[in-house]
């Protein structure tokens, strides 16, 4: 059985040209003129692009006393509806728990995925077990990216000694550390002060996490990675301070990548002020939304290449869950949704306004991500041999975003009322049609795990350090160094 996508314009990260795409057995088998297939999809007037990759999701994640409400089924259905054909989720060990124990849970949850997926491993504590298991996780499980939380003190946060030890180990294994960069100590101080002064509402969340806490942590993580000889991926870059640190590091020849979110690019801090409690709380996430100066910085970063990819950090909580924080903003579950809206919002506000070229759009939503995470060209490419994860985007198709018609299982949408122009006509996941003219045809369980080899990058500036071995943790504690 072959499928052919006919009469479209192929748009990749570096080329735009007219050609048909032939698919068989889930992969692209031919690209050319006048191709024939058993089944024909008409892409006249449309752009044929690599399906989006979302490098940052939290599906059914235990967090802040609850679980994020979209699971691998609804989350990947939302992804496909919006032209995203692969998600990368974070497997989160409980403090003191082994990496493989956590992976077992993520393996179970992800059996319901409608599209392909991969995992980043979170490093939530440090000890011999983590040190030892990291090697197998990298070499046998095909997970080459490890996330460290520099915030959420008393829960997920790891300290500088743990960051340094973990980064050294990852450099040795050829894997890439990632950071949630906010100074967790300062956030905890500011939060306590705000609460003590009677600021209990969701707007205080924004005051408790100013751009400086993010800029400081990003700089610190970059320097620690430098000392460890490791590359670094900074998630949810929301402000100029953090972007500036990344820009400078890249200028100095370091492999440091920054990932802004579609939310930070398109929504600003006014969402928290003079709004009803529910409205503001639904938009509570870390880092919080910023002002226009920071948004302009993020757009400039995508244009110049100092920022590499656009994610969602999809971590959706219902209004009822958000209300756990009535009377104390620090108890509002942090996170927002965006999986279904990332591509239409970025197309509309990026390509539609002239801020991004179509090729830059493909780079930041798909190809750059596949390259950094090391699953290119299986993913992120329209090439013979690549997986047929394809989005056919109709630039004339438009809608107004509304929770009423979304796939996500929560009861609101942070982009409610936004008009978008440029929507998927077809979405294919490994050759199988998941979306056809707005009609969802997803198949639960179709998604497969994508293994990613270590890419072995070290920072050139410190390549002379290569060959140093990472120090083993001194004692077996099994206790999270940062406590819980
Ligand atoms: O507020 C957020 N971003 N929630 C999800 C967890 C994280 O920090 O990425
Ligand atoms: Zn985070
Ligand atoms: Zn409202
Ligand atoms: Zn996140």
TrEMBL record:
GO CC terms in record: cytosol
PANTHER family: COLLAPSIN RESPONSE MEDIATOR PROTEIN (PTHR11647:SF1), HYDRANTOINASE/DIHYDROPYRIMIDINASE FAMILY MEMBER (PTHR11647)
UniProt cross-references to InterPro entries, sorted A to Z: Amidohydro-rel, Hydantoinase/dihydroPyrase, Metal-dep_hydrolase_composite, Metal_Hydrolase, Metallo-dep_Hydrolases_sf
Biological process according to GO: nucleobase-containing small molecule metabolic process; pyrimidine-containing compound metabolic process
Limits of the Amidohydrolase-related domain: 47-417
Key words, A-Z: Hydrolase, Metal-binding, Zinc
Cofactor(s) annotated in UniProt: Zn(2+)
Catalysed conversion reaction: 5,6-dihydrouracil + H2O = 3-(carbamoylamino)propanoate + H(+)
Entry PTM: Carbamylation allows a single lysine to coordinate two divalent metal cations.
Name of the featured protein: D-hydantoinase/dihydropyrimidinase
UniProt subunit comment: Homotetramer.
Pfam family of the protein (one): Amidohydro_1
Family: Belongs to the metallo-dependent hydrolases superfamily. Hydantoinase/dihydropyrimidinase family.
Matching Gene3D superfamilies: Metal-dependent hydrolases, Urease, subunit C, domain 1
Modified residues (N6-carboxylysine): 147
EC numbers, comma separated: 3.5.2.2
Organism: Rhodalgimonas zhirmunskyi
Purpose of the protein: Catalyzes the hydrolysis of dihydropyrimidines and of the structurally related DL-5-mono-substituted hydantoins, to produce N-carbamoyl-D-amino acids.
Enzyme class (EC, first level): hydrolase
One GO MF term: dihydropyrimidinase activity
